[in-house]
UniProtKB/TrEMBL annotation:
InterPro entries assigned to the protein according to its UniProt record, in alphabetical order: 4Fe4S_Fe-S-bd, Corrinoid_activation_enz
SUPFAM superfamilies per record: 4Fe-4S ferredoxins
Name of the protein described by the UniProt record: 4Fe-4S ferredoxin
Residue span(s) of domain 4Fe-4S ferredoxin-type: 7-36, 37-66
Entry-linked PANTHER family: IRON-SULFUR CLUSTER PROTEIN, IRON-SULFUR CLUSTER-BINDING PROTEIN-RELATED
Pfam families linked: Fer4_6
Source organism (scientific name): Caldimicrobium thiodismutans
Length: 245
């Protein structure tokens, strides 16, 4: 297809953190998260208007003027129809929209010699699921509370060595579990239960940030200024970031 000089999106991959916010902001489906970075699916899907720019938290996106294939509205409509059909299929193996939490990836496991063997369990209470622990649970009082996304316990091999010791853990999935129920439960905990500290461990995928949203809403509802330390865990089993929220 012949190219014309026009405005089109440009992505700085060194700044992109793969959060996927630009993907959902692009009505034409021109962007996807591929290998952890936002990428342009096809030049013909980008209208160059830049609706995605304001959604990028790192400034990785900008509109430039260069030689590119012409925007094709009909091709966009056909592409979006295919995406919709793919999303509705129970046999979909990978979403075309590229939501990082759905992307299938093969990982290289570490060899046994490279990780510490005979790791003792640091778990000091039961149950551990958020929905099964009442705010009145005695082990929550004066606890160093670790609120953990389900997937972290699988992805982070040093959980029992570094994050869990001396802490009480509550685990759940912000994507599939009832958010409103969790907001109410944590609001009651924050309001009524004395805690030493609150830490949160989430995966790097965007949907996992829903757990931070839940806790922030609970904090507002409880009217308590409780700082959270947030650990973001990569799918390869390392701590990517530590932040205080």
């Amino acid at each position: 297809m012949a190219k014309i000089r026009r405005k089109i999106i440009e992505i700085d991959e060194t700044l992109c953190n793969g959060c996927g916010k630009c993907v959902t902001a692009c009505a034409e489906g021109a962007l996807a998260i591929i290998d952890g970075k936002a990428r342009l699916v096809s030049e013909i899907y980008c209208d160059g208007l830049g609706a995605c720019l304001g959604e990028c938290p790192t400034g990785a996106l900008k509109i430039v003027e260069r030689e590119a294939e012409e925007f094709d509205e009909q091709a966009v409509e056909e592409y979006l129809k295919r995406m919709k059909a793919e999303l509705s299929s129970p046999f979909t193996s990978q979403l075309a929209c590229g939501c990082p939490s759905h992307q299938l990836r093969e990982l290289e496991p570490e060899s046994r010699s490279s990780i510490e063997a005979n790791i003792p369990s640091a778990l000091s209470h039961w149950p551990v699921q958020i929905r099964l622990i009442p705010p009145s649970a005695p082990f929550l009082r004066e606890a160093k509370l670790l609120i953990c996304a389900d997937c972290v316990s699988v992805a982070y091999p040093k959980l029992h060595l570094e994050l869990l010791p001396e802490r009480k853990i509550m685990i759940g999935c912000p994507k599939f579990d009832p958010a409103e129920l969790y907001v109410e439960k944590f609001a009651e905990i924050f309001e009524k239960v004395p805690l030493q500290s609150v830490e949160v461990a989430i995966m790097e995928v965007p949907c996992c940030k829903g757990l931070v949203y839940i806790l922030n809403e609970a904090r507002k509802l409880a009217k308590k200024e409780i700082p959270f330390k947030i650990y973001t865990i990569g799918v390869k089993g390392e701590i990517l970031r530590e932040e205080v929220f």
